[in-house]
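Readers outside the structure-tokenisation community will struggle with the description of the input data as it stands. Showing the layout once, in full, would remove most of the difficulty. For illustration, here is how one protein appears when written out as sequence plus structure tokens:
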Amino acid sequence: MKKALICGVSGQDGAYLSRLLLDKGYEVYGGSRDATTNGFANLQRINLKEKINLVSINISDFRSTLQTIIRVQPDEIYNLSGQSSVGLSFEQPVETFESVSIGTLNLLEAIRFSGLPVRLYNSGSSECFGESGGMPADEETPFKPRSPYAIAKATAHWQVANYREAYRIFACTGILFNHESPLRPDRFVTKKIIAAACRIYQGSQEKLHLGNIDIQRDWGWAPDYVDAMWRMLQQEQPDDFVIATGVTHSLKEYIAMVFAQLGLDWEKYVVSDASLLRPTDLMIGRANPTKAAEKLQWKSQYTLADIVKEMLNAELQKS
């Protein structure tokens, strides 16, 4: 039986990855900064909390990281930890950088120090690309990060590449484009729109305040994307992969799709709010996931319409 340690198990991706690995027969260890006080709401929501070995690990602390790896002796580590909001990173740049880049470095150094044959997956981000001139980004596209979050993720990406080359550690980064699910917290704009639209559908008189709705993104389905993470660690040689649908939509399209499925006209409820604009933002995110299709035999299964339907159904069932 393989052992997997998931750092950041309490998040969206951590919960879905836990389910995937359990279904594949893994013994799963879920890491959180304090496993004794974390409610693990996402794991509870998909009925997995009791099936996972929960451990306390602070990957910003090298001693904690090394001790946990030596104690658990995992075959695979999935680094999904760190501050994950682009918007919040402008307010908390230091915490964002430390939790993402220092955490990744501690994992790499602990694997090197322990000498254990651990395979490491690092969660990267399409935000690292910045503006690519509207061209689909692939693994060779230069990074031009435009937020503290993207800078931290770019740093972690190159740390992984360096340890892979210098110390022959099996480590790879998934450069993931946006991926959504009902487990997204409300601070993410996709979930914020879903939650507000459902409240309006149920009689709320509120308005939905949003920033720039002309931005364009490649949105996928989170359970699809954790499968790509697992596939990366099953390869003979470690490598980095862009994970995306290859289809881009504007946020305005997404809003219209959400409200239309509820029989509502979005223009009656959405208000442009300049206070929600970021200091710098990406206008267009496009992806070329050809390498993942060819080498991982992976392809996204859900369209944006499918994702909207799943998220709306889940939100309405909560009411």
Q: What stands out?
A: The mean pLDDT is 94.
